[in-house]
């Protein structure tokens, strides 16, 4: 399993370097225009997570890697677990990298509470998306996953526009007053449970899927 994760890293090493440069640019740009650290940390974490997932799956699809790997003496369970665990590792690595870069650029350590809120929100979103997408990918293939991903992008776009409505803003204000950090911790816990359920489902799906 770990060899499969390392395979993704080595295949994407060029993209990872470019992604690191992009994240640095996002932080520098955000800091220079006075953007709250919460915003560009959230944006950076989302870009990092989404980019790594999309690139790794896209490259595997182009090279028919899934078909090749499953023909080797590697269990399909390991193939699935490598995808899920690799996603978590990439997100956590990006989060640590963002914290270091942001602290250097702003010449101060970002308060852990603010850092948790921004990166935790990004983690919930990325885990939520992958929880839905990975079983579809392992069952129906890359093309079907792309359609679902397009739908999710449209959904999140509409959700963003909805935040401008007064009623939605009142709900957001209530959430913040009630304690967003507490809600976020609950969401992270729930999302991790769903993530494990999704991984288990993907293992079962890939087990009976003909590639």
From TrEMBL:
The chain crosses the membrane at residues 12-31, 37-54, 84-110, 116-140, 147-166, 178-197. It comes from the Bacteria. The keyword Membrane applies. Pfam families: ABC2_membrane_5. InterPro entries: ABC2_memb-like (IPR025699). The keyword Transmembrane applies. Keywords: Membrane, Transmembrane, Transmembrane helix. This is ABC-2 transporter permease. It comes from Listeria rustica.
């Amino acid at each position: 399993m770990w060899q499969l994760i390392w395979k993704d890293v080595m295949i994407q090493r060029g993209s990872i370097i470019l992604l690191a440069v992009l994240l640095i640019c996002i932080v520098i740009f955000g800091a220079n225009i006075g953007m709250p650290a919460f915003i560009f940390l959230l944006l950076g974490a989302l870009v990092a997570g989404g980019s790594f997932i999309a690139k790794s799956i896209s490259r595997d699809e182009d090279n028919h890697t899934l078909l090749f790997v499953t023909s080797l003496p590697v269990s399909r369970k390991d193939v699935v677990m490598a995808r899920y665990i690799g996603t978590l590792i990439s997100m956590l690595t990006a989060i640590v990298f963002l914290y270091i870069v942001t602290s250097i650029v702003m010449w101060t350590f970002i308060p852990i509470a603010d850092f948790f809120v921004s990166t935790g929100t990004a983690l919930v979103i990325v885990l939520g998306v992958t929880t839905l997408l990975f079983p579809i990918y392992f069952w129906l293939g890359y093309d079907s996953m792309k359609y679902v991903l397009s739908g999710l992008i449209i959904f999140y776009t509409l959700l963003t526009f909805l935040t401008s409505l007064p009623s939605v803003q009142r709900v957001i204000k209530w959430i913040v007053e009630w304690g967003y950090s507490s809600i976020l911790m609950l969401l992270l816990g729930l999302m991790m449970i769903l993530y494990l359920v999704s991984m288990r489902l993907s293992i079962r799906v890939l087990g009976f899927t003909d590639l």
